[in-house]
Structure prediction request, 279 residues.
Amino acid sequence: MPLIEQRLNEKQIPFEIIPTRQYLDTYNFAKDLDIQKYSVLCCAGGDGTYHETINGMLNRADKVKIPVALIPNGSGNDLCSAVGINNLDTALNYIIKGECIEIDTIRVLLDHDDESTLPEGNDRLNYCRHEVINSAVAMPAKIANTAIPLKGCCGTKSYELATLWEACSGNFKPDTYKLTIDGQDVVSDTSDNVETTILMVTNGKYTGGGMIINPFAVINDGLCDVTWISDPAINNLMGVAGMLGDAKKYGGTQAYKGQNSYMRGKQIKLEFLGRPGNT
Prediction:
């Protein structure tokens, strides 16, 4: 914080620091602030902080929006990586310069076809959010949830430890989904559905603290990118571990091995059909 204050004071940029203390503080600040007093909201934190701030602004009753600046200080920082902000100095340089770019957000609806039946208040977030990095079902979602209590002590290693925990728990098994992209059902030569241990809708390239799951994702092209494992031979513990290892170490080169499917569109619909072998 002292370095941030020093740089802004040197450039005679007035600012106000608003500390957060609990979950959804940044969401409620962005939603309820007298936003006309500010020219930009600067978020110092990680992907969760950015996500709350952007969702809060997009849920404002007055629909007013101002630029959001990112200062990386989290366990993953995948949104910062997607836009080339890799350290504090770079973040402050962009803020001082006042340079802005537009990025996409993806509206995610859970268990609802539209917003007309959604609850009001913060309960709405349980069913409708605006994605800025990625959304996942199957194994990535389980890993992300397992990593939450580990972040305070383990930082970026929390995702690797969560992956190991899920592996030891025997959870690397494929689930079955009906996937529809822009009104067209996704089918293969052998099935009308998708069976996979990993399915992700990505906005940017990065996830899980630096893994490049989908190297083709573009954060401001107006489209959602979808990827899943389509090779049954790696829909298991060792196969997924190898694929995630390549995504972490080799910058997404796993995309060229023919083991995953990649598609994109403006509207993605996903229906969970169960796990093969279960009733």
Notes: The first strand starts at residue 41 and ends at 45. The two ends are 54 Å apart (CA to CA). The chain has nine helices and 14 strands.
